[in-house]
Amino acid sequence: MHLDPIDLARRLVQARFPDALAVVLAGSTATGRATTSSDLDIAVLIADGGETCRETLRFEGRLVELFVHTRAGLVELFAADVAARRGVLQSMYATGIVLVDTAGEAGRARALADSDLRAGPPALEPETVETKRYGLTDALDDLADASDPFERLAVAGVVLNTAADLLLDHHRAWSGGGKWLPRRLLDADGERGGALLQGHRNLCETGDPALLTDAALRILDLVGGPLREGYRRTWRGVIDSVAAGVGR
Questions:
Q1: Nearest to 11 by CA among 70, 78, 80, 59
Q2: What's the number of CA atoms in the CB half-sphere (13 Å) around residue 61?
Q3: Which of 26, 61, 170, 220 is in Cβ range 3.0-4.6 Å of 92 for a Cys bridge?
Q4: pLDDT tens figures, 30-54
Q5: Gap between the Cα atoms of 190 and 171, Å rounded
Q6: How far is the C-alpha of 142 from the C-alpha of 233, rounded, in Å?
Q7: Which of 17, 9, 71 is nearest to 40 (CA)?
Q8: pTM assigned to the model
Q9: Which residues have C-beta within 8 Å of that of residue 79, sequence separation ≥ 6?
Q10: Which of 100, 119, 138 is the last residue of a domain?
Q11: Looking at the structure, do residues 11 and 98 belong to the same domain, yes or no?
């Protein structure tokens, strides 16, 4: 029997959080991308004194991801999402379906989320951009040399992710992981982001790195070009990945 996801979410909230201040159903259900097996992403704002947490459960046969937070917890999570340059919870509140809005709490949370999303993520520090440029240059060198198909695929993943970081930072656009990375790339720069994704797909299907290499070099050109000679880092007590993570 098909269960309406919005009705199911309402029943879960009533059972688990009858005193919730605000509840938003987000994710694929809210954006029209859901399938019958999609999980439900639900943000729940509770009164101060409660516990801010994330919980995965199954309700009436449907997998559910709960994002539970107090007002103070919501502010902290928004700040953490901004620092991570992903804006995950902000997107949930900005685009989700409001199920509970006690005394305008959901509206206030959405306003805060919209403000963060409009401002965009913080720019990467120049030193970080330089390190990513070096890492991407190194990864492209590895990709050109790779003869082992497993190594080629692994390095291609590094190229995709590092080039994506640089392109999204260039546009001051939000990043994302998993299925959200291609969505963010296409939203930020359909031409260059699309070429990067197509190049990665072509390599995975054919083993040919040419399209991926060309797309990554175009992105490098936006941020200062390839970087090999002249790159230097000072040790600060923390291992700072150059993004490539592999040596030739």
A1: 59
A2: 7
A3: 26
A4: 776 766 677 899 999 999 999 999 9
A5: 12
A6: 21
A7: 9
A8: 0.88
A9: none
A10: 119
A11: yes
Q: Residue 79: which CATH number? A: 3.30.460.10
Instruction: Work out the number of other CB atoms within 10 angstroms of the CB of residue 134.
Output: 21
Domain that holds residue 83: 5-119
Q: In this structure, are 32 and 97 located in the same domain?
A: yes
pLDDT at 248: 34
Are residues 61 and 131 part of one domain?
Answer: no
Q: At what angle do helices 88-95 and 71-83 cross, to 10 degrees?
A: 120
First to last CA, the chain: 55
CA dihedral 218, 219, 223, 228 (to 10 degrees): -80
Helix ranges restricted to H, the chain = 5-16, 28-31, 71-83, 88-95, 105-119, 126-145, 149-170, 180-188, 190-206, 210-222
DSSP state string for 110-139: HHHHHHHHHH-PPPPPHHHHHHHHHHHHHH
Virtual torsion, Cα 208, 209, 211, 212, nearest 10 deg: 140
Write out the two tokens for 209: 């790195």
* Integer angstrom CA distances of residue 231 from 13, 130, 205, 222, 248: 53, 8, 34, 18, 17
Does residue 148 sit in the same domain as residue 202? yes
